[in-house]
Design brief:
The chain has about 180 residues and is mainly alpha-helical. It has one domain. It is built from 8 helices and no strands. Helix 1 packs parallel to helix 4. It starts with a helix and ends with a helix.
């Protein structure tokens, strides 16, 4: 999901390259709304991808997502928002589509590895567990584990939800700050 959303940012780089973003300068629309609109499209792509994965897992692979569908939904929304923010920020700071694609792969792979998507975070050294806390994957996986394996409720996953929302907000603020139409 993260790689897909990050690659959606490549489209924004292409729009900047083809000067379609520059045309938005002719409108009274603020940067915040332009970037938020782009993020909404990226978010919808990521959300649909994640929901397809959940449905496939549940219906075909018989994955038990626990007894808290609202908690799972909150984590999905906040995780997809966080990676959408990072993908948008990526599209703002790179100059070419090739750079965006290369960084999307690099960031997705490294943060997935560090965040516990490839192996249980508990088996890596303590310093790597501490680094993992800076990745959205860590907070999403940790939250899903709380619901699925421990049967926790909404109160216990709220910190995960808030951290993921903070990642999204910080990414959006930086994207607005560094946004260029040209």
């Amino acid at each position: 999901v993260m790689m897909g959303v990050c690659f959606a940012g490549v489209a924004m780089v292409q729009e900047r390259h083809h000067k379609t973003l520059a045309r938005l300068l002719t409108t009274p629309t603020e940067k915040f709304f332009i970037i938020s609109g782009k993020m909404l499209g990226f978010f919808l792509v990521g959300f649909i991808q994640f929901m397809i994965l959940i449905l496939f897992g549940q219906l075909v692979l018989k994955v038990n997502w626990g007894n808290l569908p609202l908690g799972v939904l909150l984590l999905v929304i906040s995780y997809v928002l966080s990676v959408t923010g990072l993908g948008t920020l990526l599209s703002v700071v790179v100059r070419t589509s090739a750079q965006a694609g290369a960084f999307a792969v690099l960031i997705s792979m490294v943060t997935s590895m560090l965040g516990g998507a490839w192996w249980p975070i508990e088996i890596v050294p303590r310093f790597m567990q501490n680094i993992a806390r800076f990745t959205p994957q860590y907070w999403a996986i940790n939250g899903f584990n709380k619901i699925i394996t421990r049967g926790f409720g909404i109160t216990e996953i709220l910190p995960n939800f808030y951290v993921l929302l903070a990642i999204s907000a910080i990414s959006l603020l930086f994207a607005i700050r560094f946004f260029r139409f040209e």
